Amino acid sequence: MIQFPVEQVTQDKIRNFSIIAHIDHGKSTLADRILELANYDIAREKHKSQILDRLELEQEKGITIKLQACSLNWQGYRLNLIDTPGHVDFSYEVSRSLAACESAILLVDATQGIQAQTLSTAYKALELDLTLIPVINKVDMVNADVDARTEELVKVFGFQEDEILKVSAKTGLNVDKLLNRIIDVAPPPDSDPEAPLQALIFDSFYDEHKGVVIAIRIFQGTLTDTNSGELYLVGKDAEFTPTEIGHFTPNLTPGEELRAGDVGYIASGVKEIRHFTVGDTVSDRKDITPLPGYKRPRPNVFASFFPTDSDDYPQLRVGLRKLALNDASLEYSEQKSGLLGSGFRCGFLGMLHMEVIQERLEREYGLDLIIAAPTVEYKVKLTNGRTVMIKTPSELPDPSRINTIYEPIARVNIMTPDRYMGAIMDFCQQKRGRYVNTEYLQQTSSLSVQYITIEYDIPLMSLISDFFDRLKNLSSGYASMDYEITGFAPVDLIKVDILINKKVVPSLSFLEIKENARKRSVALLKRMKKVIPRQQIPVPLQAAINSSVIARETVSGYRKDVTAKLYGGDYSRRKKLLEKQKKGKKRLKQIGDVNIPQEVFLAILKT
After folding, report:
1. Are strands 238-240 and 281-283 parallel, antiparallel or unpaired?
2. Alpha-carbon distances, residue 484 vs 327, 349, 477 (angstroms)
């Protein structure tokens, strides 16, 4: 990894900035060009593209998953760049970086225009009083419409046309002008280096030599490697002794001092990453006021991971533990299943987050995994006044003890051309959405396209299946979305048990709203009927709510033709043999269990 020197500068020559962009709008490529320009002795061909995207998955998918920071030198100024993810699942990473900056580059793709996530993140930046620098990227593309994108930025955000820079991150066109614009427009930090230390933790990760390393932005005070001594985590009310401080270049470069306005790191030597909470305040005093306005991210989607080979369970445990060292938002706990053996119940920020963890486990640790259907966390108020949180059907209390069940609700912001408005609103209604608002954004004269944003409150459970794919299909790929968990709402939720040969199979039980329970049960039983092998006897498949069967299918049994050997005689001989066979099958039903291979359950869970 390339390493850049860090020059000492005064506070008025520091610029802390982030890049706001929708996924695939060229943010990581722009970061590459900025790193090359700010360190012009590094030839592009000497290193790979997407320098700050270090994970193999990031390189392959072309997306940023893990937040990265880097200190740059440009014309005597120190530019602290914090590269951020663009996907909605990783919006918590974006909020971390915004909290540590004074300015942000608002990056818009010249071929696609403003998207819902760009809009949502830009509004968050404005709420934090960040200075936005508008930039149109990919101006060298054949299908780029720079005039239309300029008009959008002017009408939506109120920028002046001469404020908007046109760049090509791929070729490096005008990236030097962008760096100069950052110096001219972005405000320097307004901090007091003589005040008591006050630093924000905006990221943390594990280093096998340095322990947990926390990325910080110092808002007040000065931290040196000689007099740091004990440092305090104000929110957690804990203390630790730093072993090293320094800057991101983009590797960890040890230094002697971090002053007010700086972005850098502290190596703690601690082995447990959950000791450090993102958003906490680090200080050299216990009585310091914590920095405001930051909340800890929490998982929204839960799924169970099981290895197809039970011998791989220890490897799965090691893999999850190591991934959790660098991902404080990943939660996991042990889970047992009578059919699938030992596994883990995991919590994720969203479906892409789950996909990333799954792929990393399979690639980096050679695991073959089965993932149970993802669910969300419900809040259950009991008749005795207590409130419990449940993530699986088995955790649902007895119905006689339940007062009210609440489900998480997401405020969904969909941005789309107005011609798709009717179809998208019908789709949101089907997903139990509640209409909130419609806003007409702008009309670009060059394309004559009217864009709108539609807001709906939709249950989170409705978002974690195929919502985004269906939305793209309905809008011919033009619609984009952003969402935020806003709270909980009452729901008529029930537990549906699946019975095979009249025995409950806990691994296949699921939670569903009452009005959809039978429809989903019928679909699942039909799928099971196709994959469960036939037995010597008919096998009933049932779905039940509190012992009341609401759906049924039957896997037909084999009929051995016991009369095949008859070549003559009257009907009484044939009837005698058939009655004998019937008694044998009855005995099988009474004393025999259905033999269903594990692969069948794996197929059902996969679908």
Report:
1. unpaired
2. 20, 11, 22
CATH architecture of 402-490: 2-Layer Sandwich (3.30)
Residue 474: pLDDT over 70? yes
155-169, 345-359, 523-537: which has the highest mean pLDDT?
155-169
- The Cα-based distances of 532 to 81, 500, 568, 600 in angstroms read 55, 10, 38, 6
Contact assessment for residue 180 and residue 105, using Cβ atoms and an 8 Å cutoff: no
Q: What is the average pLDDT across 214-223? A: 91
| Beta bridge pairs of residue 512 | 494
Domain 301-371 has CATH 3.30.70.330: no
Report the C-alpha gap between 339 and 598 in whole angstroms.
7
Compute the distance between CA of residue 602 and CA of residue 465 in angstroms, rounded to an integer.
Answer: 19
Q: What does the alpha-carbon distance between residue 22 and residue 106 come to, in Å, rounded to a whole number?
A: 10
Handedness of CA 240, 244, 248, 250 (dihedral sign): negative
Asked if 301-371 and 495-606 have one fold, the answer is yes
For the chain, domain boundaries: 11-185, 198-283, 301-371, 402-490, 495-606
Determine if the pTM surpasses 0.85. Answer: no
Residue 372: DSSP 8-state: P
- Are β-strands 198-207 and 281-283 bridged in parallel, bridged antiparallel, or unpaired? antiparallel
Quick: pLDDT tens for 292-343: 766 666 777 888 888 888 889 999 999 998 888 777 778 888 888 766 788 8
Tell whether domain 11-185 is in CATH 3.40.50.300: yes
**Phi, psi dihedrals of residue 99, rounded to the nearest 5°:** -65, -20
Instruction: Compute the average pLDDT of residues 106-127.
Output: 85
For the record, the structure tokens of 487 come out as: 């709270």
Residue found by looking up tokens 């291979």 in the block: 597
Q: Which neighbouring-strand residues pair with 544? A: 497, 549
Identify the CATH number of the domain defined by range 495-606: 3.30.70.2570
Superfamily the domain 198-283 falls into: Translation factors (2.40.30.10)
pLDDT digits (tens, 9 = 90+) for 31-90: 888 888 876 444 443 444 444 444 444 444 444 445 578 888 898 899 998 877 655 566
Peptide bond into 506 cis (omega under 30): no
The Cα–Cα gap between 246 and 182 comes to 24
**600 or 323, which is more confident:** 323
- Tokens representing 348 are 């994720």
Q: Which of 76-85, 126-135, 204-213, 441-450 has the lowest average pLDDT?
A: 441-450
| Helix or strand holding residue 229 (H, E) | none
Residues 445 and 458 sit within 8 Å (Cβ to Cβ): no
* Whether residue 5 has a cis bond before it, omega within 30° of 0: no
176: exposed, middle or buried (Cβ count in 10 Å: 0-12, 13-18, 19+)? middle
